[in-house]
Write a structure and sequence with these properties.
This protein is of the alpha+beta class and 134 residues long. The protein has two domains: 60 residues; 55 residues, no CATH class. It is built from four helices and six strands. The strands form two sheets. A four-stranded antiparallel beta sheet has the order 3-4-5-6, with no helix packed on it. It has a two-stranded antiparallel ribbon with strand order 1-2. A hairpin with a 2-residue loop joins strand 3 and strand 4. Helix 1 packs parallel to helix 3. The longest helix is centred in the N-terminal third of the chain and has 13 residues. The protein starts with a strand and ends with a helix.
Length: 134
């Protein structure tokens, strides 16, 4: 039996993809998950997770509230994360988001999922921004 997912069919009994596992790990980090549920999901991830089970876990975790991080990025500017520079700016709606460089070196591409991974300590100083040529 297969189910419809993103315009293609998949087998819920096939092993979870690396992308699915990564997204599940991000949700475990970012959501307010009880310790016993976190331990159960982590154990299943370590023992080989099926795609259908992973999808169910993702649906469950997306309903939980986000954890407030003390070191979260809260200001606009340039951030150096894992060797890459990202520009954080404020949207008209008021929230912050991160941009990554395109092939021409301009900050135009939305860096999906990166803003939540940025920390306040990764904010670049004026001297660092100048030396990077930004």
């Amino acid at each position: 039996m297969s189910y419809r997912r993103n315009r293609s069919y998949g087998d819920p009994n096939s092993p979870a993809t690396e992308g699915t596992k990564g997204f599940l790990a991000d949700l475990l980090r970012d959501r307010d998950v009880e310790d016993d549920i976190r331990a159960m999901i982590t154990k299943q991830m370590n023992n080989g997770l099926k795609q259908g089970v992973a999808s169910s876990f993702i649906d469950l975790l997306k309903q939980l509230p986000e954890v407030e991080r003390e070191d979260a990025a809260t200001t606009e500017g340039y951030y150096l994360h894992n060797g890459e520079i990202y520009k954080v700016q404020r949207a008209r709606a008021g929230h912050l988001y991160a941009l990554e460089r395109d092939d021409m070196g301009r900050f135009k591409e939305l860096a999906k999922g990166i803003f939540r991974k940025l920390t306040a300590t990764e904010l670049m100083s004026a001297a660092q921004v100048k030396s990077a040529g930004l």
